[in-house]
Amino acid sequence: MEKNINNNIKNNININNNINNKTNYRIIFHIDMNCFFASCHIAINDKLRNKPIVVAHNDEQKKSIILTASYEARKYGIYTTMLVRDAIKLCPQVIVVEPDYELYERFSKLFFEYMFSITPFVEAMSIDEGFLDVTEICKTVDAIKLATTIQNRLYNEFKLPCSIGIAPNKFLAKMGSDIKKPMGITVVRKRELDKVIWPLDIKNMFGVGKKTEPKLREIGINKIGDIINFKDKELLERTVGPAFTKYLIDRANGIDDSPVTVVKEDDFSSVSNEHTFSYNVNSIETIKMMIKILGNSVGERLEKHNFFAYTIGIKIKYNDFTVVQRSRGLNKPINDDYAIYRICSDLFDEFNDTNKTVRLIGVFATRLTKSEKAEKEERLTLFDDMSKFEKAEQDKKVNKLLDNINRNLGKDIIKVGINKN
After folding, report:
1. 237 part of the active site
2. What is the pTM of this model?
3. Looking at domain 270-409, what is its CATH homologous superfamily?
4. Beta strand pairing status for 53-55 and 129-133?
């Protein structure tokens, strides 16, 4: 069966470019990796399988925040953002695993490479989840069989469990993938909203955060279905604003015409990558690590297509839905991932509002060029006098040198560290 499905996928890979326009009929998948950080560690260390593990810095005082917990750990009441010491009280045998963001980046790359082998219409939401528009493919392949094939392939080949939501739009697909975890496949149809979506608690509605939830509860909206029956639209608008009121009403009715947004690899005007945290983050170290992952992704895509960027920037979305976007123009274009990280890290330090927690972080590169001048670089050896180079140029050349060493001698033989101070 899988062989036939894969053959049909290949036959349908040249999909009409108009598929992502508004149509009356779409089939959208939302694929969400289950306990992604923990799953990555389990994938490379089978001794962790079926054990209660948490991903967090294992400091002496056990005050670190848990980034994710395996399902075995969650059975004890352990959850993301809990302190390690509190998790140990609930489960003394819990295993604390140090975060490895390079590992997560590597598995994320494998995940999205496989998604793009299914269809060119892939929209990454973060490093561990994305939307697929499979409308055209599902004209010849059953949607549930296709989802099962994808799920089995990710688990059998990469040892990564995932849940998949299938629906006629992105919102319902996202809601569907959250219903059955781990390893669930859920179809959400508009005619079944009253049975599948409306009974869900309002906190489970995609787009409703921890700040909005109590406001909605104060006016009597506790379940998604309460939005449908809420008669005082003016009160709702005063509570959450007109724009978000429209969002709530549309989504509760299963309305979402937003397309699966794809960056065309051969027609870049900018390159960006974002990550939405599953919780509001105030750990600078966690955010900086994510900026490093995103910067690596942006730099890799620029270098792959021989682009250089004159502008590098960051996007920060806070818990109150406010968004800050700041960038830095450069006299000399770059595509080096470490240089991108340094700029974005500086921008974050300069413009981050420390009174708020971060919900989303993004890295972007614009004003792209294929300048031959930008490609001409002075060669550097391990024995050169580094003092003759400016710091920015020094970082770039060292990073390129280490890339070459690692490429020839093995991945991650030598690494560039991140200053956590």
Report:
1. no
2. 0.67
3. DNA polymerase, Y-family, little finger domain (3.30.1490.100)
4. unpaired
